[in-house]
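SEQUENCE-TO-STRUCTURE ENTRY
===========================
What this section holds: a protein sequence and its matching fold, both as plain text.
Question of interest: how does this chain fold, as expressed in backbone structure tokens?
***
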Amino acid sequence: MTYELDTCGLLCPLPVLKARKRLSSLASGDILALLCDDPAAAIDVPHFCNENGHELTKTVDEGQGKTLYLIKKA
């Protein structure tokens, strides 16, 4: 199942903290579609995934400074 989380307007580390909280309630294999507009997320989100065993399956430039990260829960 895929769940969406819009963190536009929030600065890191808040997008990652909100993603961590949301992922904690999801089942293994679920996908979190995380939308961010903070440029630091390009570093923080992949690092978060690597550190926690989640898989960053796709990164999509949505335009207007927004990026969509698809994270598969470990």
The first helix runs from residue 14 to 24. The CA atoms of residues 58 and 70 lie 5 Å apart.
